Amino acid sequence: MPQVPAAYGAAGAAHLHAPADRDPVDHAPPAAAPAPQRGPLGSQTEGMAAIRAVWERAGETERRRPARPGRPQRRREPKHFAPALLGILVCACLLMFFAWSAAPALWISVGHSHSGTATVTSCQTGFAPSCTGTFTTGDWSRELALTGEVTLDDLGTELPARATGPDAHSAYIGGTGGLLLRWAPALVLFMAVAFTLVAASGATRLYEGRSAAIGLCWIAAGAVLTAALAFAW
């Protein structure tokens, strides 16, 4: 049987008979303060700072990026006054010519016409053959230039014709197909000259007021066509 040391009993007895008023909690280490709670995504200030840092780095990268190789764009100087003025005058004359050529046939095609009889009185041959005659309706009669399907062989004959009115300068002899060939090509050429007017005037080379200058060219072309239609009425 094992022997129990003599001191064991004394120590155990002393431990058992310790004063009861001793609190073991007094000698425990103090509890640590709770750490502040942080959201999983951080605060709003930290988020804005991160976004600002990203944008600043992107701007620095863009500034350090080398320029793209290539030919530098040449600045187009405004057109000189004399060539621009000459181009405007030439285009204006062409616009008036094509508008005046298309206006009577266009009015007759849309139904604005007086039907009557044209008596061919004279014809001229050559580079630009032409005939004249007396156009007669039930209300008025007038000497007019004859256009359309009329030749020297028709001299002295009476042919059905149409004119825009008593103030017309010409009468047309022929069908609707011939009328279309008289005004459609003229209007196409009119539009082409209008585009040429914009380029010749130098409006496309302006850096300030470019849209206004281009619009002014188109307004001028429209005014010429309107005037031609008004005179041919």
From TrEMBL:
Location of region: Disordered: 1-43, 56-77
Compositionally biased region (Basic residues): 65-77
Keyword Transmembrane helix in annotation: yes
Low complexity compositional bias, start-end: 1-17
Keywords: Membrane, Transmembrane, Transmembrane helix
Membrane-spanning ranges: 81-103, 180-200, 212-232
Protein name, as recorded: Uncharacterized protein
UniProt organism field: Glycomyces harbinensis
Lineage: Bacteria, Bacillati, Actinomycetota, Actinomycetes, Glycomycetales
